[in-house]
Each structure stands twice: as C-alpha cells, then as structure tokens.
C-alpha cells in the first residue's frame, strides 16, 4: 500500500486523519494515541475515497441512494464554511 506524504495534496480526502496530518506537517503535537492512529490510517491509505465507498457503511449508504453523499464526505477543501456552536451548544446561524 502506498504511503501518503503529509505535504502532498493530490487525491487527499478530508477527515480527522487528514486534519491531523496537515496539523502535524505544520509542527502541531504531540499527538494522542487516537490522533496518531487516525493520522497513520489516513497517510497509509492510497485511495481513501475508494476505501470509504467500499466500506460496509459506504456500501450501505450507496444502496440507500446516498452515493453522492459518500463522495462528498471524502472531498478536501470543498467548503469555506466552519460550523460554530452558540452558548447553548447549538449550531449558530450563519
């Protein structure tokens, strides 16, 4: 399996591992065990979009008609919006 280089952006879908990988490449750390595992899973998966769509959850969502949602979930840098919670822990309107 091909290993991803932290600075490489080609074909790199988003997720916790992607975020942690990017932060690590900018010097953030130290990482918790969980964060290190997410980073390793992201960087060690050659085709993360395929891995997610081929997973049990990805196949189930696709069978339910949500294939596009599965694809969108693996996109990187596709939105400039960030969800923000208000004082009641609800998402603030924006």
TrEMBL record:
One protein family per Pfam: 2-ph_phosp
InterPro entries recorded: ComB-like (IPR005238), ComB-like_sf (IPR036702)
Taxonomy, superkingdom: Bacteria
SUPFAM superfamilies reported in the protein's UniProt record: ComB-like (SSF142823)
Residue ranges with Low complexity bias: 8-18
Stretches the record annotates as Disordered: 1-29
The protein's name in its UniProt record: Probable 2-phosphosulfolactate phosphatase
Species annotation: Streptomyces hyaluromycini
